[in-house]
Specification:
118 residues; mainly alpha; F1FO ATP Synthase; two-stranded antiparallel sheet; 3 helices
């Protein structure tokens, strides 16, 4: 319960911090659209989470394969082949996810003038 409350409060604080630049106004009183500064970090955070997940998955595959090979040494070749194929599939999906994160995290213009209201 405490961990859930802590995670929820950190998420709420992050939302507040990233929303503040989006609600900022220019000094001259003109209305401007300001993109949140967190958009620059979204690609990096997404890529980091992707890499962490892939590393965890490949580590679990490796540990399970070594444990299986220790229990049944006669099928070690088949286990090793299956492990390499699974790790290659995970790495392919990870590469795709990193490319998507990099494309989504590209910097946007920081200030875009808004036409005056009628």
């Amino acid at each position: 319960m405490k961990l859930t409350l802590r995670i929820a409060s950190l998420a709420a604080m992050a939302l507040v911090v990233f929303a503040v630049p989006g609600m900022a106004q220019a000094a001259d009183g003109q209305a401007h659209m300001v993109t949140p500064s967190g958009i620059y970090l979204s690609g990096a955070i997404g890529a980091a989470l992707t890499i962490i997940g892939a590393a965890y998955g490949i580590g679990k595959i490796g540990s399970s394969a070594v444990e299986s090979m220790a229990r049944q040494p006669e099928v070690a070749g088949q286990i090793q082949t299956a492990m390499i194929i699974a790790a290659a599939l995970i790495e392919g999906v990870t590469l795709f996810a990193i490319i998507v994160c990099i494309l989504n995290g590209q910097p946007f213009p920081t200030v875009v003038p808004v036409p005056p209201a009628l």
